[in-house]
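Deliverable D5.2: sample structural annotation.
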Amino acid sequence: MIGVFAAMSQVFFEVNSEDVEIVRKEQRTARNERDLKRVEGIQLLADIQTMNLLPDSLNQKINNLVSSHNISEQKSEKLYVSLIDLKNSKKIRNFPNYNSFADAIGNPFLILITGVLFIILHFFRNTINWIQISKSFIYLGFMYLFVASVYLIWAFSNSLEIHRVYYITGLIFGAIFAAFGLKYLLLYLFKINSIEEEKLLKAIRILFRQLLFNIPKKGFIKDDKFVEFTESNNDVINKVAKEVD
């Protein structure tokens, strides 16, 4: 429950607080007024130049300044249009780039896989050897610890960008433990055995059938020895069970 609220807690916080939005709006208004005054100043210089009231030397400086400003304005507009087009071409869905997209879907995808895993465990609950399958839990637990640690270190650090050393370390160890956890999980969930193990199990079944059914059925065991024979078989069964486990 705590984990669910933590994962969804961002919905309770605004991207920017109200006071930040107010100051940002004021700054944007001041910046637009500044740019407007700048344009008006350049236009005034151009009008003064047209009236030819100043010496030629000043008129020349005004002409150079106005021409330079116009070139800068045109260049700025072209670059702005190119920048917007480039940003749009790099968008993935509504995300500005692959980095943001991967960051947004990474942890949800891990949670999705975990959810699917629990559903599979539910459907196989009656056939699962829970003692055996629990051997995978320690590896899966360490996998989650390393993945979570990377993001927690990032969240509590003073840097906006996560250091590559922490990220790569978490990625390597998380992947290693995930591989071991997946190995044991699949092995005991779906009872994946090698050809040699299958042959061994088949041989054990044949041996047990001979000991428990065929020999007594054919009368090879005397009545006074049957109890002793049965107890001996039980000992053998327990030993084999320990070896197979």
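Annotation notes: Residues 165 and 171 are 10 Å apart (CA to CA). Residues 56-90 form the longest helix (35 residues).
The annotation will be released with the project's public dataset once the embargo ends.
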